[in-house]
Structures are given as C-alpha cells and as structure tokens.
Amino acid sequence: MTEGTPPRTEPTSPTAAPIPPAAAAGPTPPERRRVGVFICQCGGNISDFVDTEKVRQEVSKDPSVVTAEVHMFACSDAGQQCIVKAIQDKQLDGIVVASCSPKLHTTTFRNAAQRAGLNPYEYTQANIREQCSWAHTHDREAATEKALTIAEAAVAHTVGSRPLERLRTETTPHALVLGAGVAGLRAALALSDMGISVHLVERAATAGGQVARWARLFPNDRSGPELVARLLEEVRTRQNVVLFTGAEIVAKDGHIGDFSVQVRTADGSVVPLRVGAIVVTTGYEPYTPAPGEYGYGTEGVVTLPEFEELLGGGDGPLTYHGRPVRTVSYVYCVGSRADPEAGTGRTYCSRYCCSATSYAAVRVHARDPAVRQYHLFRDVRTYGKYETLYERSLKGGSLYLHFTEEAPPTVTKEDGHLLVRVRDLLTGGETVEIPSDLVVLVTGMVPRENAHLTEVLKLPIGKEGFYNEIHQKLRPVETVVDGVFVAGTAQGPKNVAESVASALAATSKTAGLLLKGYVDLEPLVARVDADACTWCGACLAACPYGAVEEVEHGAKHIAHVSPILCKGEGACVPECAAQAIDVEGYTNEQVRSMIDALAEE
C-alpha cells in the first residue's frame, strides 16, 4: 500500500479458496496420527552408503509410526503401488518418503498419496540421498545417523501437518509477449494458433530483433530479414494478435491468471491490458568492445555483427571501404569467457559465436576462394550438427591457431597495415604474425538493459545478468513469479533454433495455464492470526511479491496476505514481533518439532 492510500476493508482474493483461521491450524495430537515411512535404496545410490534397514528399525520406534518399509525404488510404479496399498491397508493419515531431493519427486509422491485417498499435503519427503549418501560417501556410519535424524524430523513435520486444499483462481485467456524478435514473434503465432489473444510489445521502433541484422542464418542459409518479414506478415494476418512497436510495459498488478498491465505506446499514451500470463522474450545485445580492445576503433577492426552486415552487402569479391580484402583474421571469445576475477560477469560462453564465425568463413570462401582466413581461438565450440560448419571452413582453407587465456592475441597497426600477433599452441608456442586487411572480433551476447522491466515484473537476475528460470532442466522457462515465463536470449545465450524452441516451451506452459480457464496453486502460503496481529507494517516491507496489504478488522487494522500472490517464502514470519504469521505446511510448531527431533540424542 502506498502512502496516502486508505487501508482496504476486506481481502482482495475473491477467486481463491479461503485460508482457514489460525485457530484451526493446530496439529493433530501425536497419539492420533498414523504415519507410514518409506525408505528408498535408490538402486544403491542411497543404500551403498546408508544402512537403510537400520534407519527403518530406528524410525519404527517412533510412537506415531505405524509402518516403515524399505524399497529398492520408491518412485517406481511398483514402489508407488506399495505406498498406496500401505496407506489404505494401514489407514495411514500421513506419510514420509526418505529418498532423494524433493525437487525430483514431490509431485510423484503427492499424487500417490492422493490416489490412496490421503491428502497430498500430509506427506513429507526426507532427502537422504543428496544430503546423506552422496555427501558422506567416506563415512557410512555418520551418513546413516544423519539419514535417521532427517527421517525423524520429517516424521515430526508430518505429525504436525493438516489437510490442505489447492487454491483455484480463474484465468483470463489473453497473453502478453514482451519482445518481438524471432522468439517473441514465434511465441505470439503459436499462442494465436491455440486461440489465445496476444498483445505483442516491442520496445524498438521495428520488430525483428537481432536476427533482422543477419543477412544469412546458419546452417540452412536462410535470410534473417526475410525470416523476420515472413513472421511479421503472418502476425499481421492474425486478428487475435496486436503488435505494439516503440512501446514498453510501465506497470503491472494482479496475479497469475489475471494481470493488469499498462503499456506506454509510441505516441506516449498508456493502454491498460488484462492478461493471464506474460512471456518475456526481450533478447540480448551484442557485446561492444572497449576502445582499443583488440584494436577496436582502428580502421579495419570490426565486430562479428558488423562483419555480417558487410557480408550481406552484395556478391562478388569481398571489399572493405572500397579496398579488396585478401586476408581476414578472426579473434574468438571477445566479450565472453572472461576471467571471473575481472568482475565483468561475462564468464559464460555465448554459444552461437563459433558456429556463426565458421559459417561466415564458409561464405567468404564461396565468394572468393583466394581470401586467406585465420581463426584465433581458445576453444572451438561448434556443438552438435554445427560441427559440419567447422569442417567445411577447414576444407575451404581456413587456418585455426590456438591461444591461451593468459596470452591473448594483439592487434596493432604498423606502416598503415593491421598486424595480428599470437602465440600458437598448435605450433609449439611459436609467435605468428598475420598481416591482415580485416580483423573480425567474434563478440558474444550480453544482457539487454532492462532495469525498468525487471523492477516492474520482479524478475530474478542471474550472476551473468540474464533472467533466471526456476530450474535449467526441470522448469526451464518458468520464473519464481507465477504466470511469468522467460524464453529466448533473454535468459541466456542461444542460437535461433534454441531460442525458438524455448519460446515454444513457454507457449505450451502459457496455453496449459490459460486454456482450461483456471489454475490451481499451492496452498503453502502465509496466513495471519487476526487476533494476534497489531499491524506494524514489517511484513509488508519484507514481502518481495506484494502479497501483504493492510485491512480493517473490526476496530483495528491488521495484515492480510493474498493467497494468490504469496509464494510461501516466509520472509514475513521472522519480521513479525507478535508472531502472528505462519506459513501453511511450515508452521512455527512444525519447525520447532523438527528441530527437537534433530536435537535428540
């Protein structure tokens, strides 16, 4: 709530299932609980370093544990069937699975519990693989002891659990795509194909992004401008796609399924939009070398994008400023793979550069086989099918010289000519001098300047400066902000094919969210004890998601947490001096009972 705004008189989450009051949140007394513990051997990943049978025997002594079993693979179909059968036969009201990271199989075991008729939120997973067997391969006894205490803490957590229901909110069948490069255009078209209306917002005056600058794209020799023109023409034929150029998002409110956003257009007007999801495909910027870096700023020293524009300028022999080019030297990894101690953040590989440069060399050779081409590289990373480009450049006469990070090439101008010097490891460290007509600095990708957008969307930034997904493999396009997805080079260096693939992944996630008309959310959110709360505002300041607001409650003001906006992060809990806030599934009482279990001798 901003200064001067009166407090709301009631909570503002009409589509969300209500959170029960604090009084109903107390744990069931331990003597009434019937907990089952299922210990996974993980095919030896756990049992080779943890005595799973001993863990089973010891945890069985807990009075709340009705049954404890050891399975070779708890996550397998057979393992899940055993868990389902035990829940039904033993009439369990809570389970613990001691296995691997919750990131892998939380959904698996929740679904198994639900199939057996058990509330899925009365299940706890104890990580005894990553935290025990993998971490302590040198000490089986200590790993076993640690696994036992973690399992006992999980039992205590389950004993303090209670049934919870997922929160449901309706969704608006409209999507916002930010960035109209190839990834954004392709995402907009895919969403349109599925009947979802799309607002496509591009900050630049024209759409197309960086691909529009590339005359030819590897490996199929397609024209970048033609590809962009074809996508734009297709976008213009779609009645359910609206393209804004010279525009940017200036404000966002709401939550997953129902965002209210404001877009400032090229004429300065502000257009309000309501969308159910947001896809961020804002792209990248090519690295611009500092003046003097590898001779940059000297006539004849160009970056890879500038060289691409030169190649696309016509056919026939290659010329530069009217002079024929007979020798080209390429310097790789400019702006990428920097020394971590340099503090630039550009320690990453930009992925596309090696393939793009090999492809450029193939095209130069096709135009004029007499041109001498030298590639000065640290490593050549033409991965996958792009290895063929590297082979074609070699067969075309390109020479590759290997330098180290400690001894990079130098580019100087002597007697009016460019001279490149490099210590070539492939010739035993000999210093090679290459008189060159053109030096191409193979520059990588850097994050686009999006500080305002980042603040509006509350998106996390990685150490390289690109937007962060939740998990690179398991949730590669989702962000910690529900309903906001990232794709393309906005989340890291990619080539065109990879950018489009990630855009389509974000599209599928968006469609899965919007087409069914509603979304179910985790109920593991913060709740406020209205009787204990005295409204000090500390929780409002601590919440990074804007989920807390001040409301009137009888004769006083209290905090209210929107269950749709809340992520259950818990930053508000330690800030509350009155201890009026708890997080469902991780209540103070549950946490204390887990600590007590861990502390037992």
Q: What distinguishing features does this structure have?
A:
alpha/beta, Alpha-Beta Plaits, Rossmann fold, FAD/NAD(P)-binding domain, 4 domains, 27% helix, globular
Describe this entry's structure for a reader:
- This protein has 601 residues and is an alpha/beta fold.
- It has 4 domains: 1-26 and 522-601, Alpha-Beta Plaits, CATH 3.30.70.20; 30-161, Lumazine/riboflavin synthase (Rossmann fold, 3-Layer(aba) Sandwich), CATH 3.40.50; 174-283 and 448-519, 3-Layer(bba) Sandwich (FAD/NAD(P)-binding domain), CATH 3.50.50; 303-311 and 326-437, FAD/NAD(P)-binding domain (3-Layer(bba) Sandwich).
- Helix content is 27%, strand content 25%.
- It is built from 14 helices and 30 strands.
- A 5-stranded parallel sheet has the order 8-7-6-12-25, with helices on one face. A 5-stranded parallel sheet has the order 14-23-17-18-19.
- A hairpin with a 5-residue loop joins strand 21 (417-424) and strand 22 (430-436).
- Helix 6 (182-193) packs parallel to helix 7 and helix 9 runs parallel beside helix 10.
Fold topology:
Blueprint lengths: L34 E6 L11 H8 L5 E7 L5 H13 L4 E6 L2 H14 L7 E5 L1 H5 L6 H20 L7 E4 L3 E5 L3 H12 L3 E6 L21 H13 L4 E5 L2 E8 L2 E7 L5 E6 L1 E4 L3 E3 L14 E3 H8 L7 E2 L2 E2 L2 E8 L18 H15 L4 E6 L9 H9 L3 E4 L7 E5 L2 E8 L5 E7 L1 E6 L1 E3 L3 H7 L26 E3 L9 H19 L3 E4 L4 E3 L9 H5 L5 E6 L2 E6 L19 E3 L4 H12 L2
Parallel strand pairs: 1-2, 1-3, 3-4, 6-7, 6-12, 7-8, 12-25, 14-23, 17-18, 17-23, 18-19
Antiparallel strand pairs: 5-26, 9-10, 10-11, 13-24, 15-16, 20-21, 21-22, 27-30, 28-29
Helix pairs in contact: 1-5, 2-3, 5-14, 6-7, 6-12, 9-10
